[in-house]
Amino acid sequence: MTFLNLIDVGKRYGDVVAVEGINLSIAKGEFVSLLGPSGCGKTTTLQMIAGFVQASSGRIMLDGRDITREKPNKRGLGIVFQSYALFPHMRVAENVAFGLEMRGVSRTERADRVAQALTLVHLSRYADRYPRELSGGQRQRVALARALVIEPPVLLLDEPMSNLDAKLREAMQEELRDIQRTVGTTTLMVTHDQAEALSMSDRVVIMEAGRVAQIATPRVAYETPASAFVAQFVGRANLFEAEVLFNTGARVSYGALAATSARWTQDAQPQTTQAEAGAHLQCCVRPEKLRPMADDETGLPHVDGTVLSAMFLGDQCLYRIDTPLGALIALWPNTQGPGTDIGARIRVGWMPESAHVLGRIDAGAVHG
Question: Alpha-carbon distance 119 to 135, whole Å?
């Protein structure tokens, strides 16, 4: 059942469109991430939900109540800012209690709820410290406890882990998701980090230039991207041009690659899925879906090429290969890769179901 609902929500600054026609329904207890590059409108969308930015159009509904014009303090939402926004002159317990005090909660109840919140984020023994005496991860957890202690209907997270180093960020992603599952609070997070969104979210909303490019589960967004933008933003992607040989409606066979087939994405347009023989389409294959093949091996779509670069990543190896389809990238476990040097010849192939049609392109266009 929909708990938070955005209906045709938009924001304009004069002639500049920051957000246009956002439609999003979030279920109670769901964890959803707004994902996209800088300037795509994700933070503006979050701020419109919080009430810090007034929507130019559309409605924002919370549990059946229209909050579009309500002031931020009337919405009762919990917010964790990128900078954490802790009061430096207040101790940890005082920071966490601030929202309760503003709501007139009694001293006894405040103490109980603050103690519970600090236990939830594993900071009970730091209650009397000041923010300057805490690590970045600890300050983030204080901000989270302060947001959760008021028992908000929705928790809004604005790039909450962008100030943490890589190792701590990964640990905090897991911890934050565990806390959210324990509490069951409906959560909306803004991030530009694809791995963060994919690993933490029930669904991701990928945004491009103020519009929604795709709303899907992390797996669907990665495995069947709705567009070239989504394919390239959510992880690495190999894009190439294919010419239709014949079309059965659900699959297309393309030339130059042993007349094999590729799947349509779930969001493929009807005019694309009805592509006639000779039409040119854009296809996508993820780097880890490629595999090295013997020179005489056939039966799968494949292409021959020359290794342009080889990068050792510890548990993986990243290869860039020059082929007639353009420069392809292949990502393999370091026990599986061919171990070839730059300049070596190599044949790479993939399973037919690993190729996804993204859409029609102009004949003769160059992609790679």
Answer: 17
